[in-house]
Amino acid sequence: MSACGDGEVAAAGPLATQGLDNVWDPEQAKETLGASTASFEPPQGRSLKNGIGYISLTAVGGSQKTYDAYVRQGRAAVAKADGAGACGWVVDLRRETGGGMWPVLAVAGPIPGDGTVGMFVDADGKKFVWSIKNGAPYLDGKPQAGGAGRPLGRSRPPVAVLTGRPTASAGEAVVVAFRGRPDTRFFGEQTRGVPTGNVPHRLSDGAMLILTEVKDADRTGRTYDDAIPPDEEVIKDPRPVARHQDAVLDAAQSWLLKQAACRRR
Fold first, then answer.
1. Residue 48's domain spans which residues?
2. Residues 6 or more apart from 138 whose CB is under 8 A from it?
3. Residue 207's pLDDT is what?
4. Which among 111, 128, 164, 206 is least buried, having the fewest CB atoms inside 10 angstroms?
């Protein structure tokens, strides 16, 4: 089984799409599957005060070439944010609105660390395990994107994950990949509520039927089928005076600076 996202279909396996059934007519299926490129907003990385690393992960869909470009740029952003070795990390998923989950996990992979990070669970209870090895994502032991990633300067750092209502589908899969991880806390607003995977079925006339057939589950086996709430709800102030403020990021940094790894700074 393999997994993929919006605009990409594997021979079999769940798709990290919006969790809604879809039908692509023959022309749409041909056009989508034949697309060679797709645009995406590159992930952004930077070093925050007191040695905290920050990475904003964005949505990506399209061809393997597009995914490779996303992973390359995203890993460069992580390396930039890591500097001499970040004491902790902010993983911002507020702009991760869906698409392919594997290139996003390939960028984030060194941050949650190696091991089992989640799974798909079908209606019969069968599990398809997501894991990280050398910073790269695997599904049931099969590599999915990116190849080995560069290790962080400091292993097993505390992590603050930022979510919002736009966080959906593949974005929620990445949220789930951090659920149950030690020294991890979630800030912001609840996600959109489609933490599921779709399976493509090619029809005889060339059309494609895409059905939601699996739920996301975290490393503990807990399944998700609705909006995922944060540990600490922080709603952005809508007033114009607060336009350039980010209360969610501020709360995340405040928590990280209280963790042992960052208190020593």
1. 4-263
2. 130, 131, 132, 144
3. 79
4. 206
Closest by CA to 75, choosing from 106, 114, 101, is 106
The tally of CA atoms less than 13 A away on the side-chain side of residue 148 is 3
Is residue 252 pLDDT above 90, yes or no? yes
253, pLDDT greater than 50: yes
Interatomic CA distance for residues 53 and 49, integer angstroms? 9
CATH assignment of the domain containing 237: 3.90.226.10
**Cα dist from 148 to 57, 106, 153, whole Å:** 19, 8, 15
> How far apart are alpha carbons 109 and 102 in whole angstroms?
10
Tokens 């029809």 correspond to 203
Q: Rounded CA gap, 115 and 224, in Å?
A: 20
Kindly report the pTM of this predicted structure.
Answer: 0.86
Among the listed residues 43, 40, 178, the one whose alpha carbon sits nearest the alpha carbon of residue 109: 178
pLDDT one-digit tens code per residue, 141-187: 999 998 888 999 999 999 999 999 999 999 999 999 999 999 999 99
